[in-house]
Predict the 3D structure of the following.
Amino acid sequence: MMASIGEFDPLNTRVPATKIEVTVSCRSLLDVDTFSKSDPGMYELLFGRTEVIDNTLNPDFVRKFVLDFFFEEKQNLRFDDFLGQTFCTLGEIIGSTGGHLERTLSGIPGKKCGVIIFTAEELSNCRDIATMQLCANKLDKKDFFGKSDPFLVFYRSNEDGTFTICHKTEVIKNTLNPVWQPFTIPVRALCNGDYDRTVKIDVYDWDRDGSHDFIGEFTTSYRELSRGQNQFNVYEVRHIRTARCKKQHVTPILVLFLTQLNFTVAIDFTASNGNPSQPTSLHYMSPYQMNAYAMALKAVGEIIQDYDSDKLFPAYGFGAKLPPDGKVSHAFPLSGDADNPNCVGIEGVLEAYFQSLRTVQLYGPTNFAPVINQVANCAAEITDGSQYFVLLMITDGVISDMVQTKEAVVNAASLPVSIIIVGVGPAEFDAMEELDGDDVRVSSRGRLAERDIVQFVPFRDYIDRSGNQVLSMARLAKDVLAEIPEQLLSFMKSRGIEPRPAISSSPLPEVHRHI
């Protein structure tokens, strides 16, 4: 199976935020071999390839993909071989529950090609390596006409109770007392730098047809394996297994926060945008290209949505007169349902935005505080670090309620909230810079904001001169989202919130074992 990544860096200025290790498994692959099972192999076109595993429809690939992760960019991945193909983004894998993402393979019409499973984990800074050798005594005899052909499979444990494969030994033919060759493995691969993390080792009897017989298993840790250079560790589960481990130097683990992002959109419906039916309007709905509001929404939203598991996004408008009585609202749901402001996916937000342009009257003034306070009220209910709220506000003009907005920002700065403001059109946005606290922290009534939570940018600074909308959107998203991870981390630190373990509702499927 071949895989490729599309990483887009229009400004050529990326600094890797972190490295992510992606493990790949498949289940129920399509069997295309006549006299045996398929031999799946997944190949990475640009940065590596997995091994080919003979005679199995449920492969767990040992070889990993290590990728630089950029939160602010959409990193597209494609995986394919002669058995099937699938697409996803790196953000979708990282943002999925428990770091596990399942996708259906497609490629042969009318055939079920199987399921591909991705597991992502951020790599620690540990650079240690371990050299070890294992041997076993009196293993079970599994072959009818001879002894067993044993090999070992190493797995590291995950927070959700699943295990990720990290090493396989060679097969030792026709013996119940195998001595495997010494091998060297990065400690990062074995336990990601956590010496007390459970390591599970399975013992199998190799069979040519791929239906390897399960002999037994035992658990240990790197700390136990590295007790001493000349000492033996003995583990007994079903049989006695002894292991030698040569100890290398030690470094601490890097811990992570696992947080669900909640994305909310607020769009300016004031009259200064112009009549939506006219081409001069910033809200003009051209059949040939997106307007600036739609571009900003799509650019930011398509990246954020990978980290929002339910893909339900509250979307509001402000500064419009609503039917039937013409009352002005500064936080009306684009869905038209006051009890349910959620839209399904970014496409759902766009549809609701276009529909609202047909039903409301653009008016004014440009008030930010009501929407900010609404999101802040939601964030105030969940401050344990499990949820973080990102509000995208798109506007064409100067804020009318600056005093109230500054107070709303100062209040929200103590909550798990970040605010992105994108200015569209030719207006001067000098007053907006007051909210972006990069240089001077926002204050209200003598109170300083606890954190810098506002990022303001004028969209015109990112417009590609050749008219390439894709390039313009990528530039915008890269800049406005770059501060979100640090803002999230600053909230966690300000509240003394410790990293939370991932919780998975769907553990990795297991292959049937012969015991």
In short: The first strand starts at residue 2 and ends at 6.
